[in-house]
Automatic annotation (TrEMBL):
Molecular function per GO: water channel activity
Keyword Transmembrane annotated: yes
Name of the molecule in the record: Aquaporin 8
Transmembrane segments: 12-30, 42-62, 101-124
Similarity remark: Belongs to the MIP/aquaporin (TC 1.A.8) family.
Subcellular location: Cell membrane
Keyword Transcription: no
InterPro entries: Aquaporin-like, Aquaporin_8, Aquaporin_transptr, MIP, MIP_CS
Coiled-coil stretches noted in the UniProt entry, renumbered to this chain: none
Lineage: Eukaryota, Metazoa, Chordata, Craniata, Vertebrata
Listed PROSITE patterns: MIP (PS00221)
Biological source species: Ovis aries (Sheep)
Catalyzed reaction equations: H2O(in) = H2O(out)
GO BP term, pick one: one-carbon compound transport
Membrane topology: Multi-pass membrane protein
């Protein structure tokens, strides 16, 4: 919704702050219940470092994709239709030409790595685990969007790409947001 309602005068600042602060808040609130998993790529990283059981990975992925779909449907429901369509489904309008693909894939790899590293070191690793982990994770999303939003849209989350793509039926370059993360 923050992408749909973003004004041209704020640039990337408004969606970066909205995404980062919201993520930090929901991880702080729900982290003790579900581990704060909202991103299939981060859940995969958590499983690889021992922070999530393999048997839980697929149910988490299904739930995350459903969450992305529900979130996109709600964003469309509460937004004026012309704003929703102007945002091309609110997922990825940055990559418009095939010449941008390589840079976008590399950006998504780097941005998702920073996010996954922050999660693994701040919320999973017992030696570096800290009480500010939810907000550090949110700050990493904020930094990622500010740094890479103009290159790839800074999605970092296949579920966040999937929901809007499904609701808007907009699949151009969608694979970037699965391969990169």
């Amino acid at each position: 919704l923050s992408v749909i309602e973003n004004g041209t005068d704020t640039g990337l600042l408004q969606p970066a702050l909205a995404h980062g602060l919201a993520l930090g808040l929901v991880i702080a609130t729900l982290g003790n219940i579900s581990g704060g998993h909202f991103n299939p790529a981060v859940s995969l990283a958590a499983m690889l470092v021992g922070g999530l059981k393999l048997t839980m990975l697929f149910p988490y992925w299904i739930s995350q994709l459903c969450g992305g779909l529900i979130g996109a449907a709600l964003a469309k429901a509460v937004s004026p239709e012309e704003r929703f369509w102007n945002a091309t489904g609110a997922a990825f309008v940055t990559v418009q030409q095939s010449e941008q693909v390589a840079g976008a894939v590399v950006a998504e790899i780097i941005l998702t790595t920073l996010l996954a590293l922050t999660v693994c070191m701040g919320a999973i690793n017992q030696k570096t685990l800290g009480p500010l982990a939810p907000f550090c994770i949110g700050f990493s999303v904020t930094v990622d969007i500010l740094a890479g939003g103009a290159v790839s849209g800074a999605c970092m989350n296949p579920a966040r790409a999937f929901g809007p793509a499904m609701v808007a039926n907009h699949w151009d370059y969608h694979w970037i947001y699965w391969l990169g993360p």
